[in-house]
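Fold this complex.
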Amino acid sequence: MLAGAGLGSKWYRFRRHSTPYILVVPALLVVAVTVFYPIMWAVSLSVHKYVLYEPKDTPFIGLANFRQAFADPVFWISIKHTGIWVTLIVSGQLLIGFAAAILLNENFRGRGVVRSLILIPWITPSILAAFMWRWMYNVNYGVINRALVDLGILSHHVGFLSQADLALYAVIVVIIWAGAPFFALMLLAAMQAIPEDLYEAARVDGASAFRRLMHVTIPLIAPTIAVTSLLRIIWVANYVDILFVMTHGGPGYASMTLPVYVFIKAQSALDMGYSSAMALILGIILISIVLIYLSALKKLEINTR
Amino acid sequence: MRSALIWVPSLTLVVLTIFPYLWIFLTSIKPEAELWSPDFHYLPQRITLENYVQLLTSTPIARYFVNSTIVASLSTVLALAVAVSAAYSFSRFRFWGRNFLMTLFLVIPMFPTVLILIPLFVIMRNLHLLGSYVALLIAYTTFVIPFSVWMLTGFFAAFPVDLEEAGMVDGCSRLGAVFRILVPMALPGIIATGIYIFIVAWNEFLFALMFTAANTRTLPVGLYSFIGEYDVHWGLLTATGMVVTIPVVILFFLVQGHLIRGLTAGAIKG
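Structure:
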């Protein structure tokens, strides 16, 4: 605008207007090639029979993959487990993260150290988190069983990952452990952005610590809670790694969630058509949940911007 | 009274978070026999490095380490170049479609991983790219771009545009102004974003499991493969776990201040 202002040529104006777009194009291109193009492929795969070890036999079969899903009992079990999985994990992470954020919002020596240490699970490879908890949950030699028996809480060792009624919940604990610190960090940042004079004013009015929490802190961080929870719901609903490595959805299908089922169908059964159809169903369910969630926020008048 | 109210929960929080790491460390320095002994001790009765020696001498861990370093470094360079460019555009220009594009980058991470992974696997297979670094590079760059763009846009927007304009008056080209003025100022933020990208690529498991072959396996896939090959040899697995995790923990602590600020910028704006 400065060096070439005197030129005023068409070429110059074109360059000025196109610069921001040219700069965005590479990022957009990468994303288009690896997100939108594959999703179009997924749509196409979902209406074909496409099993990798029968590469010659890929006829168009319409909605047969979707009909197969609705008739597949494991699909329904997985959906039910995904619901339990998301509800327990997100509420667990929110509660623990909120408590931790209130704690870290106090000024005390070593606060920075605590804040950094509790973030380590967030940077831990999911595969390692899965293995270390598998080892700690081990029936005969795991530290959790030993400690619970030593403390007198359990009378005998429990197969946390091998018992059908426990496996899903044992993995849920791991994901809460891994994700709560990050939740705490987000809520803490929002709490620290609250101007101190609001608390002062509340104190002058004689509000107790509890009332200050209920009437100052929570309303002001509500948008952050709402947005962070939504992002978590989506992320947790799509999550595969730790559950896949810890239980493979088992024993039987006792801890199978929909994304894990989709992944196993693709990875071991190599049934790309069927798994794409189920992945699309998962995507549609999630979009619906996001839309319902956002409209509920609007009704509650929580402003997410 | 107040200090107990803070210290007791803080300590509980830290212990619950850190204990699993302590436990795998203790497991990794216990002799194998001790792990399976009915006579249980929390602390090792004899400290040994045999698991680490076995890991380094009789497994392809060095190969996996090199693969992970290559993939994570290249992803960082590639994603950072693309993201810095887009973030510069978002923070320095007001243009038609800007809000739409920024929202697009926000929405992309919401697509189910499996919905992208499965067709991408088929595409890579058709292109004969399975087993090459390229497949992972493309996938990881896409993963991290949305978040990196947002983080960098925040970092860049914090610096007034006046300095760059002054530079351009003094005869710098726009590119010169970016590299001589903006980039040096925003360097801590750029480094923090780069390390975020490196950590994501270093840790990623699902895509790596589908896209790598025996000679291109990254550390997480290598660790996963040990479970079959070495059955459940927990001493070796926990030693591997230490080797995989320590580099990212060091990197994280180098930049955690900037990284935390970048990550939480959205929460504050909210």
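Chain B touches chain A through 95 residues (CB under 8 Å).
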